[in-house]
């Protein structure tokens, strides 16, 4: 059980699916397979995937078109 701490860390990558596949092929334990999150009204798509970093903390790979309300998030 954690107090007020982060459960994991996210990093942006060119291709979250490829990062997940490479990590798990090299021994990482997959937590969440690559999942595409579609924006409202088809506005942008982001792919996220997670592997175990250590203990119950995860490393999240994130790639895609980050948009909120039609505006790109940099």
Question: What would your notes on this structure say?
Answer:
It is a single chain. The chain is mainly beta and 74 residues long. It has one domain (8-72): 2,3-Dihydroxybiphenyl 1,2-Dioxygenase, domain 1 (Roll). It has 1 helix and 6 strands; from the N terminus they run βαβββββ. The protein has one helix at residues 16-25; strands at residues 8-12, 30-38, 45-54, 57-64, 67-68, 71-72. The strands form 2 sheets. The protein has a 4-stranded mixed β-sheet, covered by helices on one side. Strand 2 (30-38) and strand 3 form a beta hairpin. The longest helix has 10 residues, at 16-25. It is globular and about 35 Å long. The protein starts with 7 loop residues before the first strand and ends with a strand. The mean pLDDT is 85.
Task: Tell me briefly what this model is.
The protein has 74 residues and is mostly beta strands. It is built from one helix and six strands, in the order E-H-E-E-E-E-E.
């Amino acid at each position: 059980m954690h107090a007020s701490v982060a459960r994991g860390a996210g990093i942006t990558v060119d291709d979250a699916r490829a990062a997940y596949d490479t990590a798990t092929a090299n021994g990482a334990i997959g937590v969440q397979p690559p999942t595409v999150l579609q924006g409202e009204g088809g506005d942008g798509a982001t792919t996220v995937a997670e592997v175990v970093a250590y203990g119950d903390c995860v490393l999240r790979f994130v790639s895609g078109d980050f948009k909120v309300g039609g505006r790109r998030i940099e």
